[in-house]
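Deadline looming. Please check this record:
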Amino acid sequence: MRITYRNANNKDYWTKRWDDIPADVPMENLDVYPLKYAQMTVKDKAGKILEAGCGAGRVLRYYHDRGYDILGFDFIDVAISKLKEIDPSLQAEVGDITDLRFADQSFKYVLAFGLYHNLEHGLEKAILETYRVLEQGGVVCASFRADNIQTRLTDWLTARKAKSSGGENKVQSFHKMNLTRNEYEQIFTRANFVIDFIGPVENMPILYKFAIFRSSGHKKFDENKARAEGYRLSWFGQRLQNFMMKFFPDQFCNIYVLIAHKN
């Protein structure tokens, strides 16, 4: 397990990020992360869904608008406040994945995209809590930041940018954990989950960080647009990304997605 450190601690980072952008519009692209994998998980419209770490709400709003029984929580107050302001009918609240308020077996599905790798302490407890609130046979879909060439390059680029802006002398705080595929799988099997799927996924390809590789509608970076549509690359950029993912998927993904059921 590799730890990434940045100039802001985890909670300050996410508070600023969600404070800087409006609440998400419902996600619309079924072919990209995370909605593609949520759709692989949620098979029963009557089953209750918990979205752990709902952030700005792109997945939460997608399912809510289609009549699913979904509740979302996040540990950042401003994210929940923005969601409740834009749609008071949303079931959204501030919560802690390591200490859930819900009774045992409350949900058929738990969606946790980009959540667990933010936990400096209590990762194992968070997975056990996820297991506890799932029904027997219930399913979790979760993503975790990969430890590979792409995320190491991303961290290097971020550190280089911080140094050029005079931030190299700031105290370095916990940012995220990075795990290999095997480390990620073992965390869930130790909690008695049965793994149904685990695979490398490109959320934001490293090529997207360079405008030259982005699609024409994404040349000017708009995070809300990218989160709704997916991080779209140009024709050449996508083919280059496809090549890297075909031959080196474990090195040029930026996350692993896992789907597992409660044993």
